[in-house]
Design brief:
It contains ten helices and 18 strands. The protein folds into three domains: 7-109, no CATH class; 116-245, Sandwich (Jelly Rolls); 256-327, Phage tail protein beta-alpha-beta fold (3-Layer(bab) Sandwich), CATH 3.55.50. By secondary structure, the protein is an alpha+beta fold. Strand 17 (314-319) and strand 18 (322-327) form a beta hairpin. The strands form three sheets. Strands 1, 2, 3, 4, 5, 6, 7, 8, 9, 10, 11, 12 and 13 form a 13-stranded mixed β-sheet that branches. Strands 15-18-17 form a three-stranded mixed β-sheet. Keywords: Membrane, Transmembrane, Transmembrane helix. Pfam families: FecR, FecR_C. Residues 257-323 form the Protein FecR C-terminal domain. The chain crosses the membrane at residues 93-110.
Length: 331
């Protein structure tokens, strides 16, 4: 039976007071799901009581990257922990935050897991939640949002989005900025507003419902948006700022709906792939160009496939997550 590790044991560990048996127990405890969050919580509490210096997180991560590239000698994980039993004496060595970060990086392997808490959402689901500052977020299917594990800084509330989410940002007393990093040099900066952001490899898109936002673009460019504005750029379309007449299509996913406005079936298939994690192949070139309009509720691929079959008399074959669509004999 595995023993639990309490706060007092971890505090002794941070101060170099644990025995070899306790070190082994902590090492096994860290491998159990969910315990790394508690570890960081206690580490943050211990550091707040034993402030020594401000860590250089970037430098620590660069050292770790150097280890991966073979430019610096790496210390095995077990050896890093084992050496702590020698950190005793007349003057106790107190582990600083930077060293703790390097230890955690060695144990878990990824910088984002150290610095950020990750909200994730599976295919076919939406998920609402509230951030520590009061900001409300609705996360779309197959999306994730990374939030600073130890809280926002005073001047900026910075998160990282991969996928799609709606943000209803709370204005703070000190007017701190809320920044959504979208990778590839794109970011949204606001004070208090409501907007939908879409950030995947092929496309970056922001629809502003309320307030004002500033889009930060690669190479230092900026664009200011007004309510009703749509910013979009993709590998197939150049950057554009427009005001769509029917903004419902950018909000329909929140209620498990698809909004189509004379949309080619090839685009319908692509949206189904993003929402449900399936692979859809349209075997007939003429079928790809057929158009679909309307608002359809669908919480699974079958819901929308049934509608498509009724409209176009399709032959549908499915093998696990791969779906093939062909024109039916009467089409």
């Amino acid at each position: 039976m595995k023993r639990s590790v309490d706060k007092e044991t971890l505090f002794d560990f941070f101060e170099g007071k644990t025995s070899s048996i306790q070190l082994k127990m902590i090492e096994e405890w860290l491998l159990e799901p969910g315990n790394n969050d508690r570890y960081y919580q206690y580490l943050d509490e211990w550091e707040s009581r034993h402030i020594q210096f401000l860590p250089d997180e970037t430098s620590a991560f660069e050292k770790y990257r150097s280890v991966l590239k073979g430019n610096m000698p790496a210390t095995p994980d077990s050896e890093v922990i084992r050496r702590r039993k020698n950190w005793t004496g007349a003057r106790r060595f107190r582990i600083p935050m930077a060293a703790a970060l390097l230890l955690a990086i060695a144990l878990f392997g990824w910088r984002d897991q150290i610095l950020y808490y990750e909200y994730q959402n599976p295919f076919g689901k939406t998920k609402p939640f509230r951030l520590s500052d009061g900001t409300q977020v609705v996360l779309n299917a197959d999306s994730r949002l990374c939030v600073p594990r130890f809280g926002f800084s005073e001047d900026a509330r910075r998160v990282i989005l991969e996928g799609e989410a709606e943000f209803h940002v709370t204005h703070t007393p000190n007017s701190s900025r809320f920044i959504v990093e979208m990778r590839d040099g794109y970011a949204v900066e606001v004070l208090g507003t409501r907007f939908v952001a879409f950030a995947r490899n092929r496309t970056k898109r922001v629809f502003l419902a309320e307030g004002k936002v500033k889009m930060k673009l690669p190479e230092g460019r900026q664009i200011y948006m007004k309510p009703g504005n749509l910013f979009e750029v993709s590998d197939r379309k150049p950057l554009a700022l427009t005001t769509p007449e029917k903004p419902q299509q950018y909000l329909a996913w929140k209620t498990h709906q698809f909004y189509f406005d004379n949309t080619p079936l090839s685009e319908v298939a692509r949206q189904m792939e993003e929402r449900f994690g399936v692979v859809i192949e349209i075997a007939d070139s003429t079928l790809k160009e057929k158009k679909l309009g309307g608002i359809y509720e669908a919480q699974s691929p079958d819901d929308l496939l049934q509608i498509l079959n009724e409209l176009y008399n399709l032959d549908i074959s499915q093998n696990n997550q791969r779906i093939e669509l062909r024109s039916g004999s009467n089409l």
